[in-house]
Amino acid sequence: MLAAGTTGRAARPRASARRAADGAAPSRPLCTPSSALASSSSHSSGSRAAPTTNTTSAAAAAAAAACGRGGRRNPAARRASNLLPAARAAAPAAQEGGSSSSSGSDAPTAPNARGAGRMTYYPSSYLELVGDAACAVDAALADGLRRLEVEFPPVPTGLDAYKGSSDLFIDSNVQLALTAAKMLAGITPLPAGAQAGAAAAPPTTADRPQRKIHIVVPDLGEYARSYKLFKPALEALGGRITMGHLKEADPGGGVNPFDLVAAAAAALAGAGAAPDPNAWGAAADVLIVVNATCTDLPALEAYVQKRGVAKNEETRGGGGGGGGGAPAAVAAAKGPAFVSWNLELDTLRGDLGLLGYPPKVLHHRFLSTVRPAFFLRTRDYSKGVPVAPFIVNYSGALLREWPGPWQVMLRQDGGEYACIAEDAVRYNLGELKDELTAAMGLDTEAAGSVAALLRRGYKTSTWFEDDAENELSREWRL
Fold this sequence. Notes:
The chain is of the alpha/beta class. It has one domain. The chain contains 16 helices and 10 strands. A 10-stranded mixed sheet has the order 1-10-9-8-7-2-6-5-3-4, sandwiched between helices. The relative contact order is 0.19.
């Protein structure tokens, strides 16, 4: 694409470490074009005034093809404080080597061994995206994990949670959670081949666990409104999927007057009084929490504790990340599981410690215990160059699909996301941008130079990404 983007690629010391592509087969063939991920990015790092196309250079395409399952393109000293010795030891053999496969990227291929990531990712619909998330959660539950996170763009537009209508995001998240809940409850089948690294298609509904799912919203007012909207669907499911709120486990002192007013308004609007959901929550096998904000995090922590949700280290021995999951045949851990569904925990973490918000210690003792099961966050970047088209726009995503590793994905011309780097430990935002910039051939500044400092900035990570020594758990990084 650019002369500057294809020169000096082999001379970059940061991108030449740990290059060991094993040539394993992609976990699924390329999908048909869709709009699920086309414009759902939430970050930009520069002006987009000059018109240009989002094209990928030949060097970037080669980097994506060479990634395979173990070809990492990471700095030698990357995230030393984040990667525990246990996590290094638990890196699966599937990441370090694999069987060779057919050559063409467009040819259908067999699924990889368990624990391998994807070569490309491009869901054809939101139903497929939710199915991928449900498969990842189902695999994590089978591995004994009990505190999980699911994160992906909730609406297929360029809007984010701060610009769009709040009701749009609230209702979309509840509807998507209901779709995933039916899969996890065994009511509808999991999509075949969706699970990353699955050696075979997921079992049928008759062979899978028949779970009770409880979808939890922040307060009584929102519960009354959501119950009114989704009451017909919930009643048709015969009690297998229910709804509730974070205050249900503490009815004596957890409901404030504003909640009562909102619930009364919903009742007057024709919904009728929503039933007491406490018994439903106590009997649930999986608690899916949606639409909570930063100020709701203390109530969320209390709710998880009152429902008896164990820490992942207690149910699984604190195993490492990056797809080093236990076999699915392991006995399921007792007690309910908690799933954070599209809460944008990274955004909520950034608000901790500000005036009027919970303290940062909430991340150290609670949010750090939540393991991402399915994580897809897109990013848009741009960089000025001295030749036409003068501003280069490029996009990527950070993908994690249990039991696979963390993957940096570069958006290609056709819209699909191709793997350019992967690791057992989560990439921070600065590292994600560096990997994408290197794959595009745009990291032309000399390491340690003033130009590199001006491009990257003095600070390239957030406080919670740097505060590893104060965390009670490393689960959120694995």
